[in-house]
Amino acid sequence: MAVLFAIQQYVYLAIDYTKIIEQINRAPIIKSQDKKLMEAISKKERELAKVIRYKQAVYQDWKDNEISQTDYRRMREDYEAQEKEITTTIKKLQNERAEQENGVDTENPFLVAFRKYENVTTLSRDILIDLVDSITVYEGGNISIVLRFADELRRVQDFIEVNTHSEAV
């Protein structure tokens, strides 16, 4: 009975989340998170340009005999390490932004799997196989249910939270 009740609650949740996602995807909103990511990318690109300028300047200083070759090599290696680190950060931010732009749609595996059982009143083997990863019964009667699609559920919840947050424009 407890397993059926838990599944019914997640079915209702999937239906509600589907409605919310449909509203979010229809609304012409600019996500506050997207704006923050764009600002972070822009800031990192400015940092990268600055490091590249410094690297070029140190080369010129070496050519003009203002610094030794040893100092030049050490400084160049430092700037190259900074350049690599900033480039990696920019790529991560761009990937995060691309993933967020793809967002979540109503065909998310969690939503699809649980909506399929909208009017479930009894448990069957098929329902358990489709929706439940494991059930653990503890001494004293406590039950722990691990549902399939937990990562997808978290992704849906994060998407809804980001896009319904009060900072969204």
Backbone structural class: mainly alpha
Helix content: over 70%
Strands, total number: 2
Main sheet properties: 2 strands, antiparallel
Spans of 5+ residues with little confidence (pLDDT < 50)? none
String of helices and strands: HHHHHEEH
Q: Which percent band covers the strand fraction? A: 5-15%
SS field, number of helical segments: 6
Biggest sheet: strands side by side, in what order? 1-2
How many structural domains in the coordinates? 1
Radius of gyration: 26 Å
* Average predicted local confidence, pLDDT: 84
Tell the overall outline: elongated
Termini gap = 44 Å
Would you mind describing this structure in some detail?
- The chain has 169 residues and is mainly alpha-helical.
- It has one domain (2-164).
- 71% of the residues lie in helices and 7% in strands.
- The chain is built from six helices and two strands; from the N terminus they run αααααββα.
- A two-stranded antiparallel sheet has the order 1-2.
- α1 packs across α6 and α2 (32-63) packs antiparallel against α3.
